[in-house]
Amino acid sequence: xxxxxxxxxxxxxxxxxxxxxxxxxxxxxxxxxxxxxxxxxxxxxxxxxxxxxxxxxxxxxxxxxxxxxxxxxxxxxxxxxxxxxxxxxxxxxxxxxxxxxxxxxxxxxxxxxxxxxxxxxxxxxxxxxxxxxxx
Length: 135
Description:
By secondary structure, this protein is α+β, with helices and mostly antiparallel strands. The chain contains two helices and five strands.
């Protein structure tokens, strides 16, 4: 009589393989979460001032950075408020070109602030998306 019962062979994976799979899964979930968190807009607004500087920076990833003087008024009787500099980044080439032509002029910039920016996007968390010239 033949015994048709064969011992069940289970596909056993080692503990190290399970650890690697869990580590890779956690890494992927963390990276996807970080990507979405970096894309969240924390605030939006406008700032006005004199555009001091606009430049491209970086060795590998060229980011477009700008600085604008938004303070430093004479309060009368010889007192002067300290300068307040607003630093920002620009993603679009068209906005960068427009800002390049407006250096030294009084402008209003519309910006979005993100929670955290990726290193290839810019040095700041403020991204200018629109510019208006003040008369």
